[in-house]
Design a protein that fits this description.
20 helices, globular, mainly alpha
């Protein structure tokens, strides 16, 4: 028999080799578990965003394509090809008993399940090739993505222990955060271990312990029987409530099952009461400096860095808090939809949810209320994106892992430095752009200042026009176009 490492001498086989390794990595490492989707529970599923994160990390770590740029959009197209070739299938895509056309989605709301052929402990090479498109099709796919496999001698397979990989992920996450925001103290981040809180659904009452499982199942069955995403998201969140409160909800359900609005308010009140009594916020105070940094970015209108910093912060969060926060944000997103039941008369649901669950998400006496509210609303508005892993972090981790694999000393190489050397032209360009942006912001402040007398404003604007005519024209030209 010829070993796998001896075979990739022909160009088409290299694409097949990469294809098989992707399938093996995905099948062995992606988190597969029972999940809820479209008001139903589905067994053995994984998230679309998790698949993209894992495959992107695998491709970068193994350096299949040398220095070629690999974006999330390219990985999504690879995932689509995997699904087209029946490696896995979309879950919950039937409409009126027929399968809808399946398009792979990079989302934490889309579920996928391995097909029978790939639902096993290990995928062998022969099984991979059975699910492969023709070698020429693989080459064409990679060519369309501008991905050219390097020579086989350059392809390395990870031999690192899971512990080392986890440590590298944490280290590089913190390093990337340091590039985005200022973190004066790192001790709490570096020393932080996986938080293992005691299950909250524990009670000392014998009657409750005997019946709590039944009450939870009753609520799940009630949610499954109603085609209502509001009820479904609320009942999913009950997993993190204590048994006593779940029993109370179950036994106070209205006798008339048609009174859906009453059921919703019962669930909302119980969930709100629980989170109002919760002492520790889901965004742990160990990350206070990160929260402050993200809030500053939001105040200054730097939304893209704020989103990436938030994604990095949630990557450091322990698994239980991360899952609970994901469900809570999904619940808030559903309740703030236009057609949703009004929770409080005369107040927008989005504001109600911010007031009700804000302190359960982030709470620190040293963080001003305005910034805390801004951070909470940012999480509510971007709940579909904040749990994705940034591409910049994938690249940093892969470079560090490859450096360790090649025998490098991890303590002597950080992968990235805090400063990046720029050419003189790039430095000049950045300086001009920053200066122009700050001048536009200053001009906007002057123009929109209601407390500045008209005569004084005219004088100041005239002086500004003399000093920076190009910026002055740009500002008012853009204002005219918007009007």
């Amino acid at each position: 028999l010829v070993s796998l490492s001896e075979l990739p001498t022909m160009k088409p086989f290299r694409a097949t080799h990469i294809w098989c390794n992707i399938i093996v990595a995905l099948q062995s490492e992606v988190e597969v578990k029972r999940r809820r989707h479209h008001l139903k529970h589905h067994d053995d599923c994984f998230l679309g965003s998790d698949a993209v994160d894992l495959i992107l990390s695998h491709l970068l770590q193994n350096n299949y394509f040398g220095q070629a740029e690999i974006s999330r959009s390219k990985v999504v197209r690879l995932c689509q090809a995997l699904m087209d070739n029946k490696v896995y299938e979309a879950v919950g895509t039937k409409l009126f008993g027929k399968d809808k056309e399946s398009t792979f989605e990079d989302s934490n709301c889309s579920l996928y399940r391995f097909t029978t052929m790939h639902r096993q402990e290990q995928v062998h090479f022969s099984t991979c090739t059975d699910a492969n498109p023709h070698d020429s099709s693989l080459e064409e796919l990679l060519s369309n993505l501008s991905l050219k496999p390097v020579t086989p001698s350059h392809i390395e397979t990870s031999q690192l222990s899971p512990t080392v990989v986890v440590e590298v992920w944490q280290e590089q996450t913190i390093l990337r955060l340091l590039q985005l925001i200022e973190l004066p103290i790192l001790d709490t981040l570096l020393d932080r271990k996986e938080h293992r809180s005691k299950p909250q659904n524990v009670s000392t009452n014998t009657d409750v312990i005997t019946n709590n499982h039944l009450d939870r199942e009753i609520l799940k069955a009630f949610g499954d029987s109603r085609e209502n995403d509001w009820l479904s998201s609320a009942i999913d969140l009950l997993e993190f409530l204590p048994d006593s409160r779940v029993v109370e909800i179950s036994r106070n359900l209205p006798e008339s099952s048609s009174d859906i609005d009453q059921c919703k308010m019962l669930l909302f009140d119980a969930i709100a009461k629980h989170y109002n009594q919760t002492k520790d916020p889901l965004l742990a105070n160990d990350f206070f400096d990160i929260h402050t940094g993200v809030a500053e970015l939001l105040v200054n209108g730097k939304f893209e860095p704020a989103l990436e910093a938030t994604q990095l912060c949630l990557k450091l969060l322990d698994s239980r808090n991360r899952d609970e926060l994901r469900r809570l944000l999904h619940f808030t997103a559903v309740t703030t939809q236009p057609a949703s039941i009004a929770l409080q008369k005369g107040i927008e649901n989005r504001i109600v949810m911010k007031r009700t669950f804000g302190k359960a998400i982030v709470s620190n006496k040293n963080l001003p209320k305005g910034k805390a509210d801004l951070l909470v609303l940012f999480l509510l508005d971007h709940q579909k994106d904040v749990f994705k892993v940034p591409g910049s972090l994938h690249k940093m981790v892969s470079e560090k892992l490859m450096f360790i694999q090649s025998g490098g000393d991890p303590d002597r190489d950080t992968g990235h430095t805090y400063c990046e050397r720029l050419t003189h032209a790039a430095c000049e360009s950045n300086m001009r752009k920053t200066t122009r942006d700050e001048l536009l912001l200053l001009l906007k402040t002057i123009d929109e200042n209601p407390k500045l007398p008209a005569k004084e404003k005219k004088k100041v604007l005239s002086q500004f026009n003399k000093s920076h005519p190009a910026v002055f024209i740009q500002y008012y030209f853009n204002a005219l176009r918007k009007s």
